[in-house]
């Protein structure tokens, strides 16, 4: 590593916080899209009529996108996405633990737990399927 890589970058970038907001919103959209895909697979396998209409699918996707861009507005509006002095990026201030936990839980934890629950229910449904068929044949 070169010595000048550790020097603080002094130029002021007024759009750095906006780029951080776009970055966090995009990462959240990606993770929440995994949840939407899991819901679609769950509804398809369980033969639920929840997502049969394209208008319902489109409205769910639009609501998800809008909420992903809105949920990180508090950090953007309060200026808690400062530029890291030794890097050329903006990120959530690590000194604000409450905001960091809020963003982490909404971006990573809640979607991950939701996907895990949905796929676990699908696996248990698939394991029970042969016994349901066997009971129906005996009746």
Automatic annotation (TrEMBL):
Keyword terms: Membrane, Transmembrane, Transmembrane helix
Transmembrane stretches, start-end: 56-77, 97-119
Protein name in UniProt: Vomeronasal type-1 receptor
Lineage start: Eukaryota, Metazoa, Spiralia, Gnathifera, Rotifera
């Amino acid at each position: 590593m070169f010595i000048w890589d550790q020097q603080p970058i002094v130029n002021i970038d007024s759009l750095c916080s906006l780029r951080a907001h776009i970055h966090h919103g995009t990462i959240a959209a990606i993770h929440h899209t995994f949840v939407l895909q899991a819901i679609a697979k769950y509804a398809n396998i369980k033969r639920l009529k929840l997502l049969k209409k394209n208008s319902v699918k489109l409205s769910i996707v639009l609501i998800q996108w809008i909420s992903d861009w809105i949920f990180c507005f508090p950090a953007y509006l309060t200026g808690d996405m400062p530029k890291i002095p030794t890097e050329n990026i903006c990120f959530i201030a690590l000194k604000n633990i409450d905001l960091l936990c809020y963003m982490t839980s909404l971006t990573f934890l809640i979607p991950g737990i939701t996907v895990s629950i949905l796929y676990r229910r699908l696996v248990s449904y698939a394991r029970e399927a042969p016994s349901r068929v066997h009971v129906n044949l005996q009746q």
